[in-house]
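Cross-check.
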Amino acid sequence: MTPALRRPTRRRRLRNYALVGTALGVMALADGPVLTHVAETAYTDFERSRPEYVKANGSWDTVQLPEGFRARAIHAALLYTGDVLLVAGSGNSQQNFNDGKLDTVLWDPATGHAKHIPTPEDLFCGGHAYLPNGNLLVAGGTKKYEVLHDKVTAAAGVLTLKNESDAHDVTLPKGTHFTGPGGRRYTSTEKVVVPAAHKMADYTLMAGAADVWIRADGDGKEYVTTGGKRFTVTGTSAAQSRNLFGTADAITFKKQDYHGLDASYIYDVRKQRYVKTARLTTPRWYPTLVSMNGGNVLAVSGLDEHGRIIDGNNEVFERSRKAWYDKPGLHRYFPTYPQLFRLRDGRLFYSGANTGYGSATAGRHPGIWDLHDNSFQPVRGLRDAGMNETATSFLLPPAQQQKVAMVGGGAIGDGPGSTDRVDVVDLTGKRPRYQPGTDLPHAARYVSAVTLPDDTVLLTGGSSDYRGRHDSDLHSSRIYHPDTREMAFAAPNETGRDYHSTALLLPDGRVMTMGSDPLYGNADDTTPGRFDTGIEIYTPPYLETGTPRPVIDHAPAAVQRGTTFAVHATAQHRIVKARLMRPSAVTHQTDSEQRSVALDITDHCPTGRAGDRSGDCCSGGCDLQLSLGKREGLTPSGPYMLVLVDDRGVPSKAVWMRVR
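Predicted model, tokenized:
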């Protein structure tokens, strides 16, 4: 199915805006105050459609997917086929969750074709990372939706069960009744298996333990229990209760956070379906997945199966076994969705950006994490250090520079306000430290950052308050130039993009933005917000020059790190850059995949002239020799888009290749 662009041709737009502007001007003579806003809007649209404006600032197109395919694009990944995988799961809809309506949409931006992908479990708010073969690993998700404080009708919480008998495991079905302090009754909401006790080296018994969620059978405050009170399984004898019992630290009326899921699947790009793997060792909601040396994947942080922040228990997916393994040697605590970036030496950099849940102090400070010895080197100097939630961070292009930018952000939780901060850290020194960059024109959180093939970065959208509260969505875009630190004006996004918004680079050099989940629908915060399922496509100025783009006529389908390979290209101007662009897999402004890797260029001219490193003889076609470095940490195995850029900053369309 093909979506309809809502944008007429430029000539027709100019004519229409001119006619509208003339008509409004006449009408305003009679009723100026009534039509002032309409006239200003029409004039603004007219200005943004003028060729000189578009050439300088780029332009936006609005796309609407066909009816029935308008997914809540909370997760978005660009696949090596050029398709975009839009993963919604239940899409932050309690009703969808209750009804089992889980959604994934596969969309081809080139043709507009869309199809539904059967979604086996609620992958909403899981994590994802590419595997070396180009498939996408997706893990975690939603087991249970949150219950806000004013919606909690009965005390509930976690009961820790103990089995002090080494005879056998004990299975208690969902609906098991427990008796607590004062003889009050509670009921479990899930099945639980309590393992048998096991003998220690000194022949003593270590009780088996398991947690289960229980809910009070009554709605009174007398059911609130704190301080490790003892519970028994209702109906068991005194002797049985000595071996099988529970303790609860907090059965309360407090808000109940989302419960994490232990789901794990590989999305098979060719077969267009999810393939089940072994389950996560720890259920996770809001985890970060990041690739490691050897093609394995590390899962970090999240809320567990009972809505508790995971206290530093991290695990690794071993791709050869398609299974997850707990890694006690990599125990490290982070808030949920910590933004992690793989460095060229294999270490991980935590920028400090995250998406909220967890301690207000622990795990909030940026630093470099060495996975070999689990050491952590703090990185200081970040301004507005208390405003890192819903911030955006990214590797500056090219990745060889090993610099990371930190953009915007907000206060912990749903606190008001945001920051205009743009700080940059050079991670190549012995004691790296954040330094002030060129700040945003507005304080913002939820900003989307997309690395472009000309070594600039598009910064777009966001809101100045939590989830767009008080009608605070920002219609603002900038193109950041890392080499000069210039924050250049760009055509503003027409659709507000706040919570649950995503953005990614397309193979043709344009940028796709989608999703927005505002808390409210008006400035007075009196009506509920509506999830925006529309898509906007940004065309950067480098595609508005009117000059022909370089063309990659031939390139290998796969290359090895540490080698030089041949590419045949045709261009009207000198080829000055070659970039490998790793595709995005983004959610909640967290994208550990996106990076741009520079390739060294040597050309061989068909006219017999000596080759140089500038690619200045491609007008008649030339063979470029491109060299890729050896570092796996710099260019992780997997899919990449090869792009050539000429001396006017115009990029070619991408050609897909796999790095091994």
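The helical segments are 10-49, 51-57, 94-99, 238-243. DSSP finds four helices and 51 strands in the chain. Passed to J.P. for a second look.
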